[in-house]
Amino acid sequence: MTDSTEQGGQASARRWLVFAALAPGLLGVTSDEAGLNVALPRIADQFDASIPEVQWVVLAYILAIGSLMIPVGKVADMVGHRRIYLIGAAVFAIGALAAGAAPGLLSLAGLKAFQGLGSAAIQATSMAILTTAFPRHERGKAMGLFMLVGGSGFILGPLAGGSIVSWLGWRWMVWMGMPFGVLALAAGFVLTRGLPDRSAKNGEPFDWLGAGLSTAAVVIFLLVMSNGNSWGWTAPVTLTGLVVSAVLATGFVLWQRRAPFPILPPDLMANRPFVQGLSITFLIILGNVPVFMLMPFYIESVLGHSAVVTGAVMAVAAVAFTTIGPVSGLLSDRFDWRIFVSISTVIIAAALVLLSFLEEGSSLGMVFGLSLMLGVGVGLWYSPTTSAALSEVAPSRQGVASSATLMVRYTATVSTLAIAISIVTALMASRGVEPTLSSVTEATSSGAATAFVDGMSLVFRLGAGVNMVALVVAMAPFGRIPRGRHKGGRQKDGQLRGLRPVDRLPERVNEGVADGVTEGVRRSD
User: Residue 117: what are its φ and ψ, rounded to 5°?
Assistant: First the structure.
């Protein structure tokens, strides 16, 4: 009994060492992604570029991450999650070093896209490694703490990035990603050594056609959604892009049904709990992300406060969801995950409705309070949903499953920002105001500000409605994930829905090794 307890303690310590190894990578990619926007004005000045031109630096980065998620995740499932994570960390560090020395805007955008490949590899494999390393009854806690790390990056990026850009210049801000990449590589190599990587599938060919179709469809779609407002939503280039993206996506789905080794297995998308988690993620992001884009314009241009105040408001929301995330993740290990999603969607919807009543003379205290409320709602949702969805996927498919989750997040973010800008600018145009967000900043009368606030209110109310749809999806009985727990919150073996016994075996074996409680596995080791 003592030996069993001792081995269980060693296994638990090893799991948290794996967590510590993954933390620098996630902190690096999130802080780099969040801090890059801070450097854009200085980059534009140095290369004498317009705002639309310099935005391609960010766009190239996002396109690379979003479009390469699924191919990278599939490769990780084939050759091993740990190996791809380490390669991704190296690419991220090299990309940061090279991008910081870029001689021109075009080369900078290209090198950030290269760095985006490393970011995609780190993100796609981190959750897969985490899900494999932690037993089922501890995954919610692990996901919650991992969310805390990622949320810290979104806070650190703008704060540290702004200081670095002001004192040392934009190149040092770009180079900030290099030490994170090096640390992620070193920690990953040392602390994850010997971690069972049962995902590798020797001899399985890579689905190049599927990868090409999925990448092209996502790139074109994100490109159109990012530029639709400037091109015009009825312009031939926009409509053509949407049609081409839809054709490529249809071709991808049809090919995956016929491919002998599909990049996105059809039975994974037939896994109802997993698809339910993806749907909830897409809807909640679709509903609440516009707040973080529109509120800075409202706080600075309408209420007349400084960028420091804007940063403080955004930080309140970020601190709230990074604080609540680990708590909701821990509790979701013992209670039905849908409880937290249901509470989350109600809180987010209520916050959005209240935000929609903001006026030109609203108090800053109200803005802070509602931002805090929104952050709490977001914090309650992510960890339980992600943990529950990925727990229904076999270890051999964790890479592509994690990648699909992240791709949905990126696609929803870009899509909802484009939709929100379209709604606000369309309402401004109907009021006879120049239909651009810059007109709010440069307005000399209250007409533009009033039109902007009315458009923002409409976006928030629509977002509240979308969150109510997410609540309906979360409560749908077809997506119930069986808990089947023993006392103490442990999951019974063989309770993974939709998986054959041969698919369930790796998870049971892996959890036995991690817990140090499965005698047969210990003897075989």
Answer: -60, -45
Neighbours of 381 (CB within 10 A): 30
485, β-bridge pairs? 491
What angle do the packed helices 398-430 and 446-475 form, to 10 degrees? 150
In this predicted model, what pLDDT tens digit does every residue of 176-224 receive, in sequence order? Answer: 889 999 999 998 888 777 666 655 455 677 888 888 888 888 888 888 8
Number of C-alpha atoms within 13 angstroms, CB side, residue 211? 15
Residue tagged 């409509």 (tokens): 239
Burial state string for 53-85 with b = 16 or more CB within 10 A and e = fewer than 16:
ebbbbbbbbbbbbbbbbbbbbbbbbbbbbbebb
Instruction: Please enumerate in sequence order all residues whose Cβ is within 8 A of that of 514, keeping only pairs 6 or more positions apart, or say none.
Output: 11, 14, 15, 133, 134, 135
Q: Is 516 left (phi over 0), alpha (psi -120 to 50) or beta?
A: left
What are residue 491's DSSP bridge partners? 485
Q: What are the CA-CA distances from residue 255 to residues 75, 173, 312, 463 (Å)?
A: 18, 42, 48, 34
The candidate with the shortest Cα–Cα distance to 147, out of 407, 386, 322, is 322
3-state secondary structure of 102: coil
What average pLDDT does the segment 69-80 reach? 83
For residue 139, count other CB atoms closer than 10 A to its CB: 26
Of residues 318 and 439, more confidence is placed in: 318
- Range 281-306 burial, b when 16+ CB lie within 10 A, else e: bbbbbbbbbbbbbbbbbbbbbbbebe
pLDDT in tens, 486-514: 333 333 333 333 333 333 333 433 444 33
Supply the angle between the helices 2-46 and 81-100 in degrees, to the nearest 10: 30
| H/E element, 144 | helix 139-167
Is the separation of the CB atoms in 88 and 122 below 8 Å? Answer: yes
Identify the three-state secondary structure at position 101. coil
